[in-house]
Structure formats: structure tokens, C-alpha cells
Design goal:
By secondary structure, this protein is α/β, with parallel strands linked by helices. The protein has helices at about 15-30, 55-60, 75-80, 90-100, 100-105, 125-130, 130-150; strands at about 1-10, 35-40, 85, 110. It has a single domain (about 1-150), classed as Rossmann fold (3-Layer(aba) Sandwich), CATH 3.40.50. Helices cover about 45% and strands about 15% of the residues. Helix 1 (about 15-30) links the parallel strand 1 (about 1-10) and strand 2 (about 35-40). It is globular. It binds 4-nitrophenyl phosphate. 4-nitrophenyl phosphate binds near residues 9, 13, 14 and 127.
Length: about 160
């Protein structure tokens, strides 16, 4: 079982969508049982809230239900996960500083590390720029890339 946690700032826009889209893609591939997929945020400002209504509305236009409830990153997330995937570089630096040792730091990956169009770049934050459809496309495409590059079926 691969335990994957996506991390953004507020856990109401980017990382909940990544969680929902990777779940959808592994379901479609019949690989649901191989993964535990979750998300959280670095700042905790929206703890207990549903994802942003604009994120949910945009995703639902694509038939995707974004169900996660916002919560803040804990050290337990890093200890329990195999992959902690950060949606932007500020979040990445924050999570690296949060780690207690090298074993934990090795688990932290940038979401767009494999993206041929913009390697290691941020997923733009739609909370500020309103580009919900662009963000949907970036996240959907990069989840597929992760499944191809890192999470390829081995059996
Ligand atoms: P997210 O977007 O990190 O993609 O969930 C944000 C949502 C809320 C805030 C920042 C980013 N905020 O500061 O409240």
C-alpha cells in the first residue's frame, strides 16, 4: 500500500483536488487497493471546513466530488506517509523545515517534479487568481504523470 499525502497552504483548493483526482484515476485503473490517499494544509486557517465552493463547483463540472475536510499537517502525516507531495515551493520549504530527520525529508516531493511543461513549478493558487479550470487541468495531468512515472504498476 502506498500512502500519499498532498499538501498545500489552506487544504481547501489545491491539495483536496489532487486527493480527489488521484483517487478517481486509481479507481478507474482498478488500483484503488494499492493506495491510501489524503491531503492537508500547512496553515490550519480553514480547519474543519469543506473545500472551497469554487473548487468543488469546478470539479463537479468534470464529474468529480471533492469531499475532504480541511485539516493542518502534523508530524504524524510525515511519519506515516510514503510520499508527501507539495503543491508549491513555499509549501515545500515549509514542510522540509517541519521534518525532524533526513528519513522524513526524503519523503517530501514537489508535485510538478515530473511535469515536462514546467518542472518543479508551483500549482498556481486559485484562492488568489481564480484560475480554477487551469488548476484542475494542471493537477489532473500531473496525477496521471505520477501514476506513470512513480506509481507504475509493478506486478
Ligand atoms: P490552497 O489555497 O492552499 O490551495 O488551499 C489557499 C486557501 C486559503 C488560503 C491560502 C491558500 N488562506 O490563506 O486562507
Amino acid at each position: 500500500m502506498k500512502h500519499v499525502v498532498f499538501v498545500c497552504l489552506g487544504n481547501i483548493c489545491r491539495s483536496p483536488l489532487a486527493e480527489a483526482l488521484l483517487k478517481e484515476q486509481v479507481n478507474k485503473l482498478g488500483r484503488k487497493d494499492e493506495f491510501h490517499i489524503d491531503s492537508c494544509g500547512t496553515n490550519g486557517f480553514h480547519n474543519g471546513e469543506k473545500a472551497d465552493p469554487r473548487t468543488r463547483a469546478n470539479a463537479s463540472e468534470h464529474g468529480i466530488d471533492v469531499r475532504s475536510i480541511s485539516r493542518q499537517l502534523t508530524l504524524g502525516d510525515i511519519m506515516d506517509a510514503d510520499y508527501v507531495i507539495t503543491m508549491a515551493n513555499d509549501v515545500h520549504e515549509h514542510v522540509l523545515r517541519f521534518c525532524r530527520n533526513e528519513e522524513q525529508r526524503q519523503k517530501i516531493h514537489k508535485f510538478r517534479k515530473f511535469d515536462p511543461d514546467a518542472p518543479d513549478s508551483d500549482v498556481p493558487d486559485p484562492w488568489y487568481n481564480d484560475r480554477f479550470e487551469d488548476v484542475f487541468q494542471i493537477i489532473d495531468r500531473n496525477c496521471a504523470i505520477w501514476l506513470e512515472k512513480e506509481f507504475a504498476q509493478t506486478t
